[in-house]
Write a structure and sequence with these properties.
- It is a single chain.
- This protein is mainly alpha-helical and about 200 residues long.
- It is about 70% helix and about 0% strand.
- Helix 1 runs antiparallel to helix 8 and helix 4 runs antiparallel to helix 5.
- The N and C termini lie far apart (about 35 Å).
- About 40% of the residues are buried.
Length: about 200
């Protein structure tokens, strides 16, 4: 279902540029990079800056490497590295193939497409990997860990939309992509999370 929804949305983006008129509706409801109330604007910039893909990837890899070294067990890295590689590959291929400008720009900046949103996909996958590690080590905190991952992803999405850095369909496509990556690696068919034993 995730793959079907992602393919359908991607086809809509490629053919129409904006889909279901929701992109324009959300754009009209948000102030953009140069407007809006002060506090939400500052918070949106702070979240988006903190959610830079390089930062998210670095945090996850550092945590996984530290845990692997501490336990002398590669399991955290076995979970984190494939997720980062698959995420990065799919996002970069999508951006290279789909030349779509962000709503705040007239042309694709530096030939870097707007679809899918790298910030959104990275926030979801990195937070999901950390949530999986916490869930395996502390099963009683499983729900809190996944709620935190979902909450962080939602904040990133809202920040990107508020500032007009992405279309709604960009972030929805990335949520579908990120969820698919996590599902394939953590649930089926690879079930990499099961490699993490309680320490």
């Amino acid at each position: 279902m995730l793959l079907v929804a992602l393919v359908a949305l991607t086809v809509g983006v490629v053919r129409e540029g904006r889909v279901y008129r929701l992109d324009d509706a959300v754009l009209a409801l948000t102030p953009g990079e140069t407007g809006g109330p002060g506090l939400p604007h500052v918070l949106a910039f702070a979240v988006v800056d903190l959610a830079t893909p390089a930062v998210g990837v670095a945090v996850v890899l550092l945590v996984a490497a530290w845990l692997s070294r501490r336990w002398r067990d590669p399991a955290p890295l076995v979970v984190a590295v494939p997720a980062i590689v698959l995420l990065t590959t799919t996002v970069l291929v999508g951006k290279a193939v789909i030349d779509r400008a962000a709503p705040g720009f007239d042309a694709v900046v530096a030939h870097d497409g707007s679809y899918p949103s790298g910030h959104t996909a990275t926030a979801l996958v990195c937070a999901g990997v950390l949530a999986e590690i916490v869930s395996r080590l502390r099963p009683h905190r499983r729900r809190a860990a996944w709620v935190a991952a979902a909450g962080w992803t939602l904040l990133v999405v809202l920040g990107l939309l508020w500032l007009h850095f992405h279309w709604l369909s960009d972030v929805v496509g990335s949520v579908l992509l990120g969820t698919l990556v996590l599902w394939l690696l953590l649930r089926w068919p690879w079930r990499l999370g099961e490699r993490i034993a309680r320490h």
